[in-house]
Amino acid sequence: MSAKRILIVDDEAKMRRILELSLKSMGNTVVEASDGMEALSIVEKQPIDLVLTDLRMPRMDGIALLAALREQGVDVPVIVMTAYGTIDTAVAAMKLGAIDYIIRPFEMETVEMAVTRALAMQAAQRENRFLREEVSRGWGEFVGTSAAMQSLYELIRQVAPTRSNAFIVGDTGTGKELVARAIHEASGRTGLFVPINCAAIPAELLESELFGHVKGAFTGAVRDRVGKCELASGGTVFLDEITEMPAHLQVKLLRVLQEGCIERLGSNGTIPVDLRVVSATNRDLQQAVESGALRRDLYFRLNVVRIDVPRLRDRHGDIALLANHFLHKHALELGRATPRLMSHVLQRLESYEWPGNVRELENIMERAVVLCRSGEITLAHLPAELSSESPGRSSSSSALADDPAIDGPLDLKARVEGLECRLIKAALERSANNKAAAARLLGISERTLWYKLKMYKVGS
Ligand SMILES: Nc1ncnc2c1ncn2[C@@H]1O[C@H](COP(=O)(O)OP(=O)(O)OP(=O)(O)O)[C@@H](O)[C@H]1O
Ligand SMILES: [Mg+2]
């Protein structure tokens, strides 16, 4: 074991000297204090690996020292030395978090053994905690330890505390919103995190949603309303599906970012805002700019830092972790024991394409928990596209397979609408009911999809 720095706390100089010699002979560095107060100020100033303290001392005794260390959140193992007959105090010390106690008078060997044991325990605990928190799970809300995710966490940690606007790019269900929230959480900004889905809000309402309005600004504006950008001042506004924002609003947003103030609809006054914008899209960003879906000048403002979120199929190593995480989460919600994932099932999960990424995996695990009665997840608990023999293939091609295209009445409108409706259902099924993904599969905007869903009264 490498040299450790041990703090001896005792009011008797002679005792300190004896302990010092012994601990030094073990190869440790020794620091001394004559009471709790002095010990505390040493611990504050320099790294200490272990504290060996007497219990009865003037000014601040060993118990008070333990309490103070705990209160300050100092994570250092403490061994207390107590006189024979004061075992109760030793028990109190253990309750306050002491790692061990030694009864006086003692042989030096006893001290050495206790010190070795305490240091080993501390090392093991540290390692366990590290494994639990950092390696075996992920970071913050994220589950995933693959190299791709590690670089993502690192990038978020670097970008978050800057004021730079960030653009998150990634397929549907990869966790873009989670990234946006993590950026806000780690930013130190004290304002709110305010998400806006530009695709889900009808164009005519989006302007007031973003910038607010004053009473009477338009029919139906019966009172003043604060916009989301104003609400996010001092915090972070998350513009999801930004490429779906109508062009004239993109111009307006750009002006807000350039000038640092907004104007509520129908008002002439301006309100200063301190905005940090995080945007996201699951489209090809370059293509969105080239096609004009996203104005180039706005794009330059928003895309100061680009963050790519990896697809699930590009980080196979995380699938087992994520699957078990979601099994546990949904079992907990249902008040059941977490079912076990059989290894052949895991293999199937790992060879699947995951077009809906983490969201799809979560939906499938939730469904499996609901269906599973035996405590073991088998292929029977997976949906057809996963339990059938050719993993990766989606089942929705069957939506058209048995379609009698020409048979029946040739009423064009009714037949075309019928087909459109079935295609929409197939796309929703294939994308695990994610509207943005379904719209992409269908090659229409999310807004058009919402409109059609309403028209055909499909889904929720
Ligand atoms: N690494 C991860 N660890 C744990 N949960 C995750 C992870 N990534 C995503 N999720 C979960 O998966 C779901 C989908 O994530 P999110 O909504 O952030 O995806 P998205 O990229 O915004 O998708 P879309 O483009 O469809 O809006 C959420 O419930 C989220 O909490
Ligand atoms: Mg999203």
Automatic annotation (TrEMBL):
Domain Response regulatory: 5-119
Highest taxon listed in the record's lineage: Bacteria
Protein name: Sigma-54-dependent transcriptional regulator
Domain Sigma-54 factor interaction residues, every copy: 142-370
Pfam family, one: AAA_lid_14
Gene3D superfamilies, per database record: 1.10.8.60, 3.40.50.2300, Homeodomain-like (1.10.10.60), P-loop containing nucleotide triphosphate hydrolases (3.40.50.300)
4-aspartylphosphate: residues bearing it: 54
SUPFAM superfamilies: CheY-like, Homeodomain-like, P-loop containing nucleoside triphosphate hydrolases
SMART domains assigned to the protein according to its UniProt record, in alphabetical order: AAA, REC
Originating organism: Rhodanobacter geophilus
Record keywords, A-Z: ATP-binding, DNA-binding, Nucleotide-binding, Phosphoprotein, Transcription, Transcription regulation
